[in-house]
Design a protein that fits this description.
By secondary structure, this protein is mostly beta strands. It contains four helices and 23 strands. The chain has a 15-stranded mixed sheet that branches. It has a three-stranded mixed sheet with strand order 10-13-12, covered by helices on one side. The chain is globular, with a radius of gyration of 24 Å. It starts with a strand and ends with a strand. This is Phage late control D family protein.
Length: about 375
């Protein structure tokens, strides 16, 4: 039997021993990408009354088990404390301190003959962030690219969509990695999660196959100024799709169009299978981590997912983790252009594997994990 524990620091000072007697629930939501992570602490209040948090107060939160130790979940800025009267209570909400104000301010500028990596390194330096950039999605060189009346955050998000990257800012780091690569804020690979029936709360596992969202190909256009024509490229997405998706933007170069089409094809493919599940509390489960089911159901076991959000909830009764995930983007081969014909669009197939539904391996039985029911645990003191 394991005992859930937590640690909370307010402006660097530990307060878990005080909150332990008042805590009703603690919820932490970890999201993939640049979406802000959140924390919510619900407390009993009164006799004596707790001090109402001030603007800018910082919460540092760690979760885990007494027997295995705590894992940090980051620092949050308190943004919306709420007090309840007669009876008395308090809810403290906070958002991840992931982005500084200047990162969200609009600006206009441009770069000439710069790679994605060089652009990101400059933006990271200007915002006092440490860049962690994957070469796989940052090697493209732009002859010219503009940031026009948009924030650094929105501009980098736009780059991420074009190049099939996942952009996030966590713990003072700007991360720009291949979507589905499963990197943590340190740039290291996140632990792959394999869920068995023993870990799953009964009645919570759902897998949705969205056949209507399947797209056969993604098409893009690039302006060939030297020959005064428009060249077309396409990327396979799902062989079971019946319609094509066309990107509205006209790209400056064929290489840029190929990259954008490939990225969109992978993104659309990943939306075709989604899952949600609640498991017994596991602090190692984080957004961006890869996971699969094992021994749950044929045609579900072995599908590779990427976690979009992980919500950790700690109650007096125990500790649970809620997962939302989608199909892991399929690895693709580098696009190769076919020989062009005069005044004809060039067609490029970027992936020989991603157009097919992933092959489902046979279930592999595993011994049940030694998990415990929510009602069998209590909250321990950190």
């Amino acid at each position: 039997m394991q005992t859930p524990v937590f640690e909370i620091k307010v402006n660097g000072k530990p307060v878990a021993s005080i909150l332990n007697e008042r805590l009703l629930s603690l919820s932490i939501t970890d999201k993939e990408g640049v979406g802000s992570d959140t924390v919510e602490v619900d407390l009993n209040d009164g006799n004596p009354y707790a001090a109402i948090p001030k603007k800018g107060d910082q919460l540092e939160v760690s979760l885990g088990y007494k027997e295995t130790g705590l894992l940090p979940f980051g620092t949050y800025t308190i943004d919306e404390p709420e007090v309840r009267c007669l009876p008395y209570g308090m809810t403290i909400s906070g958002a991840g301190t992931n982005t500084r104000d200047q990162f969200k301010q609009s600006r206009s500028r441009h770069w000439d003959d710069k790679t994605v990596a060089e652009i990101l390194q400059q933006i990271a330096s200007e915002n006092s962030l440490t860049p962690i950039i994957s070469a796989e999605v940052s090697a493209h060189k732009y002859p010219w690219i503009g940031q026009q009346d948009e924030s650094d955050m929105h501009f980098v998000e736009r780059l991420a969509r074009k190049h099939g990257a996942l952009f996030s800012v966590k713990d003072g780091k700007l991360i720009f990695a291949k979507r589905g690569s499963g990197q943590s804020a340190s740039g290291k690979a996140l632990t792959k999660i394999i869920l068995t029936p023993a870990q799953i709360v009964e009645g919570t596992c759902r897998v949705t196959f969205s056949h209507r969202k399947k797209v056969r190909k993604v098409k893009a256009k690039a302006r060939n100024r030297a020959e005064a024509r428009t060249d077309g490229v396409d990327a396979d997405s799902d062989a079971e799709g019946t319609a094509d998706f066309t990107l509205k933007e006209n790209f400056a170069t064929e290489a840029e169009a190929k990259s954008a089409a490939k990225a969109k094809a992978e993104s659309l493919k990943s939306e075709t299978i989604k899952t949600s599940v609640t498991v017994f509390g596991d602090p190692t489960i984080r957004a961006g981590a890869p996971f699969t089911y094992s021994g749950v159901r044929p045609e579900v076991d072995g599908i590779e997912f990427i976690i979009e959000s992980a919500t950790h909830r700690l109650y007096k009764a125990g500790y649970l983790t809620e997962i939302e995930a989608k199909l892991k983007p399929v690895e693709t081969k580098k696009a190769k252009a076919k020989p062009k014909k005069d005044n004809a669009a060039s067609t490029v197939k970027t992936n020989n594997n991603s157009s097919k539904t992933p092959k489902i391996p046979q279930p592999v039985s595993q011994p049940p994990a030694g998990n415990i029911l929510p009602g069998q645990v209590g909250i321990g003191r950190a």
